[in-house]
Amino acid sequence: MIDYQPLYNALLDAKADAWVKLLPKQLATALDTARHGNLEQWQTVIKCLPKLTTTYRLLNADAVQIGRADDVPDVARMELEQHLKALHPWRKGPYNLFGMHIDTEWRSDWKWDRLKNHITPLNHRLVLDVGCGNGYHCWRMLGAGAKMVIGIDPFLLNVMQFQLIRKLHGEAPVYVLPLGIEELPYGLKAFDTVFSMGVLYHRRSPIDHLLELRDCLQPGGELVLETLVIDGKLGEVLLPEGRYAKMRNVWFLPSCETLMSWLKRCGFNNIRLIDVTQTSIEEQRSTEWMQFHSLKDFLCAGNLQLTYEGLPAPKRAIIVANIA
Ligand SMILES: C[S@@+](CC[C@H](N)C(=O)[O-])C[C@H]1O[C@@H](n2cnc3c(N)ncnc32)[C@H](O)[C@@H]1O
User: Fold this and answer.
1) Distance between CA 122 and CA 143 in Å, rounded?
2) What mean pLDDT, rounded, does the chain reach?
3) Is the pLDDT assigned to residue 192 strictly greater than 90?
């Protein structure tokens, strides 16, 4: 059981009383086992984790590390592996748990490396990570000195993976809540830094997403935005007519200049483009821990510059911006 009291206290300190009032009911509703066929089974996996103790935790390395190989006998590590595999697929990571390396679908550490030296240092900051997946970057944010990190993600398997990792780690000021951004109350203005990475293109209204993100920030706060973009001039946007890289729920892929103009229009200032990188089949690939299809299956056979549908292959930009 996670003790949410420190989270409520931090939100009250940040004058987010409106959310504190809603949260207990939001958590109870989202984690109601009657609403999701696999939830009870996933919760049992976490409840029955073997008891492993360690004093070793490393949150500022490529793989989030908890425990060392010689902290536990081989048999306990094998038991842990069974529990972790019961929560397959592991998409975001890597993690190293008691000497076992979880080679996830994504090298999420590469994204972190691209942005970590370009953001306002996270020391003592209250951080929101919107669409945080299983919380890999939340741990890295904590490792970078954040006072508290709150991730939100509506996909329950992600939340369960986070809870398993957190149980191995032990109590820490990091939480992943089973919520979408649209469930946060209007006018929060509570966070020092808000991350939205890999979410904007999943939203039908990108402008509303940017306004929602702005609304979560304290005056002077910082947004770190990462999303799919296309090459092109100001005003150019790709709206796929059907699937994009076999994904059904992809909406707007702007050019970088267009995205920056959206941010300006939404009231952000000090807007900096800090990175543009085409996703490689080394960064996103199938592994033992994610055995389904991955990027190379979503691209055009014989031309890695195009998606399966013949559109420009995934390229991601990271933009940092502030509000007054
Ligand atoms: C492409 S993943 C990105 C994960 C992580 N932020 C990263 O950059 O590696 C997008 C995540 O956004 C989550 N998501 C989708 N709709 C969302 C919403 N309305 N609010 C918050 N998260 C959402 C998905 O469940 C998914 O885990």
Assistant:
1) 9
2) 97
3) yes
